[in-house]
Amino acid sequence: MFETxxxxxxxEIAVRVIRTLRSxxxxxxxxxxxxxxxxxxxxxxxxxxxxxxxxxxxxYLSVERLLxxxxxxxxxxxxxxxxxxxxxxxxxxxxxxxxxxxxxxxxDAISLMGDKIRAKETVQAAGVPVVPGGRDPGLADAARxxxxxxxxxxxxxxGGKGMRxxxxxxxxxxxxxxxxxxxxxxxxxxxxLVERWIDRPRHIEIQVLADGHGNVVHLGERECSLQRxxxxxxxxxxxxxxxxxxxxxxxxxxxxxxxxxxxxxAGTVEFIVPGTDPSSYYFMEMNTxxxxxxxxxxxxxxxxxxxxxLRVAAGEPLGFTQQDVRLTGHAVExxxxxxxxxxxFLPSGGTVLKLREPQGDGIRTDSxxxxxxxxxxxxxxxxxxxxxxxxxxxxxxxxxxxxxxxxVTLGVQTNAGFLRxxxxxxxxxxxxxxxxxxxxxxxxxxxxxxPEEVYEAAAAVRLDALTPEPGGWTDPFSVPSGWRLxxxxxxxxxxxxVQDPLEYTPRGxxxxxxDRVSVTLDGVRHTFHRAADWLxxxxxxxxxxxxxxxxxxxxxxxxxxxxxxxxxxxxxxTVVKVAVGDEVTAGQSLLVVEAMKMEHVxxxxxxxxxxxxxxxxxxxxxxxxxxxxxxxxxxxxEEAAE
Length: 642
What we know:
Blueprint: E1 4-7, H1 11-24, E2 27-33, H2 40-44, E3 47-52, H3 63-73, E4 77-79, H4 89-97, E5 101-102, H5 107-114, H6 116-125, E6 133-135, H7 139-146, E7 150-154, E8 164-166, H8 172-187, E9 192-196, E10 201-210, E11 216-228, E12 231-237, H9 244-260, E13 265-274, E14 282-287, H10 294-301, H11 305-313, E15 330-337, E16 339-340, E17 346-347, E18 350-351, E19 354-356, E20 363-367, E21 374-375, E22 382-390, H12 393-406, E23 408-410, H13 416-423, H14 426-430, H15 437-445, H16 452-466, E24 494-497, E25 501-504, E26 509-513, E27 516-521, E28 524-531, E29 534-537, E30 540-543, E31 545-546, H17 549-558, E32 563-566, E33 571-576, E34 583-584, E35 589-595, E36 598-603, E37 608-613, E38 620-621, E39 626-632, H18 637-641
Parallel strand pairs: 1-2, 1-4, 2-3, 4-5
Antiparallel strand pairs: 6-9, 7-8, 7-9, 10-11, 10-13, 11-12, 12-15, 13-14, 15-22, 16-17, 18-21, 19-23, 20-22, 24-25, 24-31, 26-27, 27-28, 28-29, 29-30, 32-39, 33-35, 33-38, 34-37, 35-36, 37-39
Helix pairs in contact: 4-5, 12-13
């Protein structure tokens, strides 16, 4: 076994790998950019090496700096986690050339399975069924031959980046161009493939484990059908869809796929499965790394997958056979992401002001967060994972809903409350899942109105801050009691903004104590977690800011009749298609803002002229920052007269 292992990653996966290294008595080395100098993974490692300045997404991709860090600290092996360089064959080869063990599969297996086109051809030759499709060149022709709907996918990567579902083939060229841009930004390769889209499919993947002595086993399946924008958000093991016969057949297909590429270590073979016929399954891709959702497999098998990654990389044979693998109980995982459900799930950001992560019987939280963590726009939006285990599915779901209600992340908007409501949806409870379920039901899972008690609590916090300490003389004009010269009282009102600005007059009673605030309205008591202007409850959070109606009025007057286009999320402007003075049409694409590897197109709300343009390609923008101003097209004189 290795004495020292360098963890070439950050965030929750780095913390998770370090935990296993510690339990095995292996010294851990973390790497960090200036932006992560005080991050949790840095503090929990035995030692840490600075690899670059901030902003620093590129620092974690620098093979040269990572290898230098390994050499400086005496590391014998490198664990890449997932993301960044985990599926980079060149990095695996560079590690070997530097005398380091890459804790993952051989570089050739990474190359083969990382190219989705070659991967499909290889496993098909091994007898594994694949989804009908086509590839570059001739991608558009292949798509038209398959017929709508089709799915565009980058050949060089996964995780939903660059994937596009096309139901209208008249938009095919536009969708191909967008998919290429996202693929190039995410993987440095814009090669695409196209597959026939299977309506109401289920996404089921098989965990495999292979050693260097010819042994390959599978550890059962994971149900990953609950997705948004092709990104998994809830995963569970085992799947309620599969019976033992289908599980065995899919497991054997996954083992054959792993053997076909000479695999070694932990990997995942992903299948698309028609929900009406689980015996008809198709290979989609193989992820040659540890998966985000690996904890659910660990909980039902009792195996530490990171530990077995290390043992296999150190040359040990698997200590068990396929007959020894037992699936016990049920586990469900929820991904906590920095995104705002009320704003169409756009990426969010900010500083973590208050953090409470659930732990306890049957509950596990994998996280890289601490209070004070700065969540920016350079990295993937996933912040942590909450996993629940129980003897059966109903118990695991109930435990996870409760754990999400206890989760508090104030200062950064997350999807925790949304996930809690999703897990209570009747179709989810019944196990009637498919990859389109979330998109179909999303509107009913995102509250459109801010509860009145949120405004009541925000007003209570402000009243408490203005109320003087007891004792001594108090100027009555300095106390927000509503007292007026001449007698009588007028309840104080507060100008607040959570979604839309409003003037709110408190009407209940309240208690403010430290980081909690409780209010009673109509005989019902509501208690919130609190940090600065943030309030949280049951996984949901609200940023209740002060609103200045005078300043807002002046701003509207300055741009009378015009529309200010603002950044929907903190990020970077990647494309600017117009200039000041340009005439634009309604719906015309003007700019593209990217955050957390996701593109958002800013379009003209109406026909008019660009009167202001405050950004250029490469500009870093904050949420709600003004990007451009569009003056409306003047109506013809006869219409105005009429």
